[in-house]
Inverse folding.
């Protein structure tokens, strides 16, 4: 079954909220996480709002920065 753009957008939004939740658990600002992951703070902000579709490289950086696995990063997200 082919995914629609709406489903992809929903998945990006869910992923962004998951990243935001995990960041806030650590009591980190977006700048803290961006520095830890070596990514731009504005890019991270876009990810958390679900307006960007990250590459696997960026997702690995975020998971590593948060100290979790990729599978943990995607936990609870409908793909």
């Amino acid at each position: 079954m082919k995914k629609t753009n709406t489903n992809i957008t929903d998945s990006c939004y869910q992923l962004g909220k998951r990243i935001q939740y995990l960041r806030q658990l650590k009591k980190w600002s977006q700048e803290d996480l961006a520095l830890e992951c070596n990514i731009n703070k504005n890019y991270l902000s876009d990810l958390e709002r679900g307006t960007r579709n990250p590459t696997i490289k960026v997702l690995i950086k975020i998971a590593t920065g948060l100290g979790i696995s990729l599978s943990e990063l995607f936990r609870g997200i409908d793909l």
Q: What stands out?
A: The two ends are 12 Å apart (CA to CA).
